Amino acid sequence: MSVGAEPAGVPAPVLHAGLRYKQSWTRDAAFNVWNGTPFLVPEISRDTLLSVLAQCGNEVRIGGELAQYWDAIIWSCGAWQYYLLTGDREFLALALDAVANSLAYSESMEFDPELNLFRGPACYGDGISAYPDTYVQGADGAGYIKRWPKNFPHLAAKHGFGLPMHALSTNCLFQHAYVLAGRMAAELDKPANPAWAAKADALRQAINRHFWMPERGHYRYLVDPFGGADVQEGLGHSFALLFNIADDAQAASVMEKQHITNWGIACLWPQYERYTRRGEGIYGHHSGTVWPHIPPYWAQGTLSRGRTDHFFKALTDMSTLAHKYGLFMETHHPDTGVPYSGVQEGFESVSCHRQTWCATGYLRLIFFGLFGMQPLPEGMAFRPLLPDGASEMTLSPLVYRQMRLSLRVTGSGRNVRAFRVNGQSQERPLLDTNRTGEQRIEIELAD
Questions:
Q1: How far apart are CA 398 and CA 367, in angstroms?
Q2: What is the pLDDT of residues 243-289, one digit of tens each?
Q3: How many CB atoms within 10 Å of residue 327?
Q4: Measuring CA to CA, how many Å separate 387 from each of 60, 152, 284, 359, 403?
Q5: Distance between CA atoms of 446 and 349, rounded to whole angstroms?
Q6: What distance in Å separates the CA atoms of residue 234 and residue 205, rounded to the nearest whole number?
Q7: What is the CATH code of the structural domain delimited by 381-446?
Q8: pTM for the full model?
Q9: If we measure between CA atoms, which residue out of 113, 125, 123, 300 comes closest to residue 203?
Q10: Is the backbone peptide bond immediately before 397 cis, with ω within 30 degrees of 0?
Q11: Which end of the chain is more exposed for a tag (fewer CB within 10 A), N or C?
């Protein structure tokens, strides 16, 4: 199995980041496959993941041409999802090597042993609008955070790339990557590195030690030598819930304290004062704006903790905006919902049309929210959720391993009263992986 821009050795179709983008970005590739594209285009999903791997000497690592080193580890989430939905063990063996090698490389370059955290910006936060004033002042119009170490070498970290910050979302991703590496090894019947579980636990503890603010009841966004940032990070909070980094009490507090704008959870809230000072209704590109690939993760994270209100808010907002504009935009104004990219020093941004991770994020709400699909190594579990006023919903066809699924959900509430596969009742709402061909799933819910 080949890696790189042409994964099969010849040009092959892959999922682009959006209409304006000519290639896959590593994080976009991961998000899109993680959101469920193997249900629709399994081969293209595989090739998209392969296209953002790199051959580094004798080993394969995550990091294609458009990778950004700090959050490239998110590829592990897409890779594990792809395996669960396809059963492709050859790919999983390659994925385990790529994840293990990438973890080791990041440990050697960006791990801070004093804090037990990984250095680097936030997941998808490549613009300086995502960061406090320390990273902006005197930057000579540098619109990208990667330029900062060259502009401020006396403040840069002495090891690795040089960015001295530690971000909540990125550290959550590294914690989960250790967990996934262990699951990949177990599924392949290979011995897991015993350090992975220990490192996952130690990183979870470090996240809660350095980021949790009990006086505010939520996590801070950044830890760095300059005072960090105590604002709320949308993806960081979402991952803390989804990956069980937050305990039950922390999760309940986060769900109460998280600010939700008129049109969903913002990338950061509140925004930095340097943008507020520009005038009413002005927001930073990565500060205060709504990026529609984030609300689905907040929705799923809160749903996993028993809250349905946040889920339906995200579903309603995304449905309304997609219907109004006829497509999925990259960014929206938090107050009005209009397509809006915000402002950023040294960089003129636009809200891109047909942004893929926003469209697949909406599919995530459908697949893993409304229809409650829960991919597991042993099969597909189900815990659907019917909206108030709806008594039936259907979805078909979906490609799952060697099957083609058609789903029908009736009733109300979240409790599964009856589960049938091809007319045969089952006690547990689980479709095992041994089946092939057409599978008709019927689920009855009761309050």
A1: 10
A2: 999 999 999 999 999 999 999 999 999 999 999 999 999 999 999 99
A3: 14
A4: 44, 52, 34, 21, 27
A5: 47
A6: 20
A7: 2.60.420.10
A8: 0.96
A9: 113
A10: yes
A11: C
